[in-house]
Amino acid sequence: MFKVTFAFEDGSVVETYANEGDNLLEIAREANVAIDAPCSGNGACGKCRVQLKCGELNTKKTLHISDEEFQNGWRLACMSKITADVEVLVPDIASAYKSRMKVADLSSKEELAIFENAKREVELAGIELKNSLDIVEVKMEPPTLDDTMPDVERLTRALRKFMNLKRVRIPYAVLRKLPDVLRESNFTVKCVLRTTPDDMFVYDVFDSREEVVIGGLAVDIGTTTVSAVLINMETGEILAKSSAGNGQIRFGADVINRIIEAEKPGGRERLQDAVIKETINPMIHEMCRSAHFPEKQIYRMCVASNTTMNHLFAGINADPLRMEPYIPAFFKTNSMFASDIGIDINQDAHIIIAPNIGSYVGGDITAGTLVSMIWNRPEFSLFIDLGTNGELVFGNSDFMMSCACSAGPAFEGGDISCGMRATDGAIEACTIDKETMEPSYKIVGEPGTKPVGLCGSGIIDVISELFSAGIINPKGKFIREGRRIRHDKYGMGGYVIAFEEEAGSSKDVEITEVDIDNFIRAKGAIFSAIRTMLSSLDFDVSMIDDVYVAGGIGSGINMRNAVRIGMFPDIPLEKFHYIGNSSLSGAYLMLLSTPAEKKTYELAANMTYMELSTVPTYMDEFVGACFIPHTDSSLFPSAE
Amino acid sequence: MFKVTFAFEDGSVVETYANEGDNLLEIAREANVAIDAPCSGNGACGKCRVQLKCGELNTKKTLHISDEEFQNGWRLACMSKITADVEVLVPDIASAYKSRMKVADLSSKEELAIFENAKREVELAGIELKNSLDIVEVKMEPPTLDDTMPDVERLTRALRKFMNLKRVRIPYAVLRKLPDVLRESNFTVKCVLRTTPDDMFVYDVFDSREEVVIGGLAVDIGTTTVSAVLINMETGEILAKSSAGNGQIRFGADVINRIIEAEKPGGRERLQDAVIKETINPMIHEMCRSAHFPEKQIYRMCVASNTTMNHLFAGINADPLRMEPYIPAFFKTNSMFASDIGIDINQDAHIIIAPNIGSYVGGDITAGTLVSMIWNRPEFSLFIDLGTNGELVFGNSDFMMSCACSAGPAFEGGDISCGMRATDGAIEACTIDKETMEPSYKIVGEPGTKPVGLCGSGIIDVISELFSAGIINPKGKFIREGRRIRHDKYGMGGYVIAFEEEAGSSKDVEITEVDIDNFIRAKGAIFSAIRTMLSSLDFDVSMIDDVYVAGGIGSGINMRNAVRIGMFPDIPLEKFHYIGNSSLSGAYLMLLSTPAEKKTYELAANMTYMELSTVPTYMDEFVGACFIPHTDSSLFPSAE
After folding, report:
1. Among A463, A635, B343, B572, fewest CB within 10 Å belongs to which?
2. Cα dist. B577→A221, A557, B388, B549, B556 in Å?
């Protein structure tokens, strides 16, 4: 056994032991040391860099480490094997891309608009915003020597009288506190109930003098980003909102790498812990702190996420999702409770999961479809969710078809050297002067915020403007020179949007040919998926009445530029609508409204799934779409 | 802070810290050091002896410690306060009375007879031995690219087809293992189900090639002793049987002291841990080991116990039980599961609790009443449960009345210097020669087992024989002399049944005047309760048709002697029937048979409770009964 020491920039260390030949990245994961490895350790991404401080490693050298860097001790952890006692420095990986948890400022109307819109739209469609949770006040006669009825029977009798219902269920958590609460309150209590036509479940009991708000939690578990809102289940009010990087990201950037990681010994637990203990629970605590809300008073949770994410969240074998015939463990599940999987809310809280419709179209899309309202109109609409996977739903009130394509994390700033989510410091819009090649940009945050990186909408603008200015060619290669244009030693170009001295980070904010290439593949995947699905239905893009775009790409998305670079079809711009994180707003609706929850199950049951990889023309479409805007420029008449 | 070291006879030590003036017994309890203190620390019982090894203690001297013993360092922990660093020896308190866990030998027919009898009797009364648990084999078509239904939906569909029922509930524990089991079994599985008219709950799923037995656990939680059986829920077969001292005993011998202890900070958790983690869970593991049975395949548990014991078991505030108006938290509770309270069986196992009917008549009595069958006959019968509390039920198929009296633990060997439970080495029967005063006795266990102590039935015999031989007077005082008669320095007499050299323990097996006095009070409580209850109904003992005696007193109980000492009324001996631990056999029936469970709820609902302490004549009756056989000897004509 050799001793392996991971040292961090803040001076802390983690020590563990390993055998000769063990892989350093694996050891780090087992020791719960976060090392960024989007490719999941096959040497492809070059992100798992560590610096050798003492001892030695047997490292296979790759192009990701220059000779000089190698000289200075830099190694890829995934390519390194243990041969002796060793100490390595793990650089601070809390990049803007994987930015830390953020609790939203609810005074900003923009933060709340998507929930307000979503509520208004479903109400207009006749869906009532009503759920089965309720608070009732119950006054009982205190017991006497002549009336010695026990506490449980006394409360049950009082509730039955009140609600005229047969069966009352008092769970252990309530039984345990009941004698104390009844006596403190002199037998006048508030009960938090779930009532259905045949029974009543008592979630909680309080002294009637206490203010009680029924809390609910809606969570969107994205492959890259997790977002959540804490709500008042009676009014629908948003009490707190938060987002954070999905802690699973160190096990791989995409779902396939995570599934593979989950199948290693102890992997399911590690992946489940990463999303629950390291991501969701801290978000819950932060939101509850900011809203002064007790965790135990959150009585229901709704999760919307892709199929892999909800399987890993539940700690369930996800391997069959990636193996023919690609079978999920569940579409719907109705028997999961907070205590089952260690969510830090009321232990009896039901966990509702937005239904999956296939291995690659999950609850994020069914919840998002609910919000898109495309199911409520006779006109044909297209719903596009730009996540790490891109998913599309096309249809109307009569039919809906869905498909998924692997876009990668570029829309959320992943796989882009200066990419970040649409949070403070992100460049969300940009223009470039055709003559001087100087940029003007708009930054997320307070006036005066300095640029830190590029979010999805910013990247679209930069690429579109670079192309319009003739700085890059249709393949995304740099073809002009200037003070903002750079070339690395391999000749790969780059454009500096903000020099270090103007930027809010310690380096230039720039976009490189590699970034552009990654982004072109992402937008190509989306565009070719749209074309393939429509063709298979004998539809044409001209027949699309409305396009609803969702995802973390940023509300600043310039649809004209998105069309110009060939990401979206060339149809009138007024047809495009950005609807934000519809997975989260859909989860919010399902949480708040039982009819909305039922509607989502109904939509899921009626949605057809199309497997793109089985369509022979898809690959041709994709190759054609990997240009700016496309190899067939007649598809983009407005760009000319 | 001072350092307090508890040293044990096996050489181990426990170290903790305390403040000046802290009570040594309290410190021991907080440090989880078991020191016997039946009186719960008020100096009354003299059992919490420890020996000072180093340092000093500020101890109030009591009569329990002689001058010589004090000289040798002996102190009562409950009377000692911390004044300095100290080390004390904690003597091995694993006395025969609090004997260690024992797994029964099931080849002994006697062990199983009470369960066989109980089953036969209820079946004769028309109660079916059927519960809602079942195993079914389900064969599914494996998924294909053309049939991509998820696992949960596939199983649900197959079960619905099979059982023609609407709602199928698949809990998290099954969801989690389902993808693996389905694939290992090639989609042919065995399901453990609970089926009710409207739904089906899937407890577990196995490869169909596995042998699966549905396990159930019946537990009698006595104040002094806990007994349990592990059973096959399909056949009712007893797979293992075990008993152990209730780990709560170090917090007090009776229910009142335990309730007081539970109300101290952290007390509920300590009392709950003592009975679950320290007592029941180890019994489960031992039984499962002996039966080669997996804990997780125990899908239901039934607990019968007095009201205080089931409150403390559930970790619920029991204080209202002992305070006017004496209100339990529950009579019935139907929403407790193994995972709620940390019972080491299947996490979804339902915990059925035999119903209480009052603060002092609990589920042990309702379960025992079921077994006694007194509810099934027109004749009037009396059911007596001799536990730490004595409880009586009198009635027939038309009405039943119950009451409780505080008998103390004497019937199970508690409060008796050489008392023990009816296990190996216990003297269970005894005669004493009137001339020579020499005893002959019968010992529980293999032939040749040496005497260790006296169980309840042995104590009855010894007292009856001492009285018949004129060795003790009606007050229990020694009035003859001889080689087996002893007197201590206060003049208190004693009788040696087995001298050290004949005994299986390191000291004489004897009975003292203090023991006899304790026992007379216990039997007096029972007799006076019988008289008081019957008088209140205008009944007379002659109207009792049958008497069913239950409890851990031992199957060797000699009813003639029990009558002779004035414990039971003087009616024909053939009317008495010893039915063993009816709390356990009742729990067994409720576990095995849903109709028996329902019958018990019905019995409980129809049973009237009489509070003896509110009957003005009870105390007079008790005082009169604290003689051998009674101050009114006309009540015992056969004894003359």
Report:
1. B572
2. 66, 87, 20, 6, 11
The shortest CB-CB distance from A325 to any of B148, B169, B326 is to B148
Of B152, B176, B316, the CB nearest to A179: B316
C-alpha B628/C-alpha B456 separation (Å) is 17
Write down the ipTM of this complex. Answer: 0.85
Rounded distance between C-alpha atoms, residue B238 and residue B112, angstroms: 8
**DSSP E strand boundaries for A341-462:** 350-353, 381-386, 389-395, 400-406, 426-432, 439-443, 453-454
Partners of A361 on chain B (C-beta within 8 Å) are none
With tokens 């040798």, the residue in question is B72
Report how far residue A451's alpha carbon sits from residue A458's, in angstroms, rounded to the nearest whole number.
11
Nearest to B340 among A144, A172, A319 (CB): A172
Contact A152 B330 (CB under 8 A): yes
Asked if A198 and A91 touch (Cβ cutoff 8 Å), the reply is no
The C-alpha atoms of residue A451 and residue A567 are separated, in whole angstroms, by 25
CA A358 to chain B, closest CA, distance in angstroms equals: 8
- pLDDT higher than 50, residue B99: no
B324 contact residues in A (CB cutoff 8 A) = 145
**Residue that has been written with the tokens 């007079």 in this structure:** B620
3-state helix, strand, coil in chain A (%, to 5): 35, 25, 40
Is residue A27 within 8 Å of residue A4, measured between CB atoms?
A: yes
Residue A341's closest chain B neighbor by CA? Answer: B172
Burial state string for A353-375 with b = 16 or more CB within 10 A and e = fewer than 16: bbbbbbbbbbbbbbbbbbbbbbb
Give CA–CA dist B158/B152, Å, rounded.
10
Ramachandran angles phi, psi of A472, nearest 5°: -120, 155
> Which pLDDT belongs to residue A640?
61
Give pLDDT < 50 ranges for chain A: 94-99
Q: Which residues pair with B400 in a beta bridge?
A: B395, B607
The Cβ of residue B116 has, within 10 Å, a number of other Cβ atoms equal to 13
From the number of C-beta atoms within 10 Å of its C-beta (0-12, 13-18, 19+), residue A38 rates as: buried
- Chain B residues with CB inside 8 Å of A358's CB? 148
Task: Find the radius of gyration of the CA atoms of chain A.
Answer: 27
CB of B456 closer than 8 Å to CB of B422: yes
Q: What does the DSSP assignment read for A259-309?
A: HHHHTSTTHHHHHHHHHIIIIIHHHHHHHHHHHT--GGGEEEEEEEE-HHH
Taking an 8 Å cut-off on Cβ atoms, the answer to whether A335 and B178 are in contact is no
Domains of chain B listed by start with CATH number: 2-90 (3.10.20.30), 133-207 (3.10.20.880)
| pLDDT (mean) for B101-120 | 85
Buried b (16+ CB within 10 A) or exposed e, A289-299: ebbebebbbbb
